[in-house]
Amino acid sequence: MEVLTLQLGHFANHVGAHFWNFQDEAAAQESEDSSIDHARLFHYSEAAKAVTWRPRLVAVDKQGALGGAGPAIETQAEAKEPDEGMWLGKLEVLRAAPVVKHAFQEDLEDEEMEEEVESERRGVKTWAEYDFRNTVRTWTDFLKVQLGSVYELPRVQHGISPFPFFFEGLEVQGREEEESILDLARRQTELCDQAEVVQAVYDMQDGFGGVADVVMRWAREELPKTGKFLMAVLPEEVPATDRPDPEMWGMSPQADVSTLALDYEASSWLSAAFSFARLQDCDIHAWVPTPVPLWSASSSMPQLERRNFYEASALPAAALDNALLPCRIRGLARPSQFLSQLAPSHRPCCGLLQALPLPAAPPPVLGQAPGGNDTLEAIFEAGAFVDLTGMKVMPLNPYTSVVLRSPEQRRLLNLTRTLPPLARKQSLVHHQPLILPVPFPQVFASSVSSDGSLEKGRDPGQEVESCPMVTRLHAAMGAGKCEALQRMSAVLKRTSVFAAMRQRYGVEADEIREVLEVVTDHMECAADSSDDDDDISE
């Protein structure tokens, strides 16, 4: 029962890098915790008496986005002379210097070599020593696992070529790029005994939404019985190279910067809307938007720089790892069955909250049953939950899954006591806290101890090594209570969009109206609930 992972887009690959770092740490603890089936996410092979583990992963990014992990650049001696063709003038060839590997990657390689020769030299350092915040250039700088099936779009150069809209991504259809990506996906499925789940993380604000559409339509045809979970990510700030031409929106290039910023934001939500609407035809079970601009504040991570791709991507990665933990635990229901019960049929939009670290249970109150005041609502009121989706929670939502990582396993009973039976069935407790890899951003408040406790604090220079945590994954309930869908709807109603989309991509007004209808329908009919129900603004 294997899980195929798709990472589509630059920010999505940052999320994926943190996610795989969590898996690497968990696999290293296998001797102490055999409840997790790592073979669901990893494929292993033996060669020359060495066992190699590779993620069941297909990652797609722009050309040149892999940094020091990209293809080796040919040296001057190996380089071929350019073909002068009909040019009779003098040619001067400028060759870029090879990208230097990040110090963390060099230490990982040294550590592997030292293990082979049984050296006692120190390998990997601390987070502070690497200064990841200021030295990470791309997601491969802090990735711990070895790259496998990675594809760089040859027509889109990282940092140079714009790739701002959903429709640019759709243009891979019928091209060599589509076949190359799908070949990698087929190769991964062939290594599975039975592909059970497709989990995808994709950039919804740009052309990678179109790439996700292409790949998920393939998954619908080739893997019809798999559970399909999509996390749609959007960074705090779109890189300048991915912003559309201002003239497309009827503005001069000299327009006011704040006005341009609004339209860059609008273009992101427009791409997200087309992606969301078209993906409804792909039989997905859960679609979780995690746009950084809509996150709530985190009292336990006050130093988090949301504009920093490396730091911001760590939170959705931790939430993804924890929320889908039931798909990796031995002896539970089939992962596809778990995903199929996360949301009502044809209503896949879900919210996701995360408490990292999880506060300790409050002391009992006289006259209350033990644990009676240890509730999800109390955790929210304490400011420990971060709402990653901008979606309000309905207390009695049956389409809810609470996943707790804590040695205090009984806490799950307290936290889910008031939830409906289906929600309690979908919930899980794991006895070990989340182990934090060295590259995980150390942006915790000083009150957080090295073991994730919120009571003791830690000494200066000491880093947080593990954290108890909880996630709450819930289907959208209540008309209009999904902020991401509201943003999409607002952009689709702008009259300037119609002319711009028709001029640039040949999109007719009827197509935009159809997308608006899909978005509006999901806003108004979410999970058969009403606005009159009590809700918690988490």
Which labels suit this protein?
Misato Segment II tubulin-like domain-containing protein; Rossmann fold; six-stranded parallel β-sheet; globular; 32% helix; alpha/beta; 538 residues
Task: Work out the radius of gyration.
Answer: 24 Å
The CATH homologous superfamily is termed: Tubulin/FtsZ, GTPase domain
Taking the alpha carbons of the first and last residues, their distance comes to 34 Å
Q: Tell me, what is the CATH class?
A: Alpha Beta
- Do you know the CATH architecture? 3-Layer(aba) Sandwich
What count of domains describes the coordinates? 1
Overall pLDDT score: 86
The order of strands across the largest sheet is 5-4-1-6-7-8
CATH-defined fold name:
Rossmann fold
Q: Would you kindly provide a written description of the structure presented here, covering whatever features stand out?
A:
The structure is a single chain. This protein has 538 residues and is an alpha/beta fold. The protein has a single domain, classed as 3-Layer(aba) Sandwich (Rossmann fold). Helix content is 32%, strand content 16%. It has 17 helices and 15 strands. The protein has helices spanning 10-28, 103-116, 127-130, 132-135, 166-170, 176-190, 208-222, 257-279, 309-312, 314-323, 335-340, 376-381, 411-415, 421-425, 483-492, 495-505, 509-524, and strands spanning 2-8, 42-47, 50-55, 57-63, 149-157, 195-203, 227-234, 286-291, 350-355, 385-387, 400-405, 428-430, 434-435, 466-467, 469-475. The strands form four sheets. A six-stranded parallel β-sheet has the order 5-4-1-6-7-8, with helices on both faces. It has a five-stranded mixed β-sheet with strand order 10-9-15-11-12. A two-stranded antiparallel ribbon has the order 2-3. The longest helix is centred in the middle third of the chain and has 23 residues, at 257-279. The two termini are 34 Å apart. The relative contact order is 0.13. Mean pLDDT is 86; it is low at 72-80, 254-262 and 529-538.
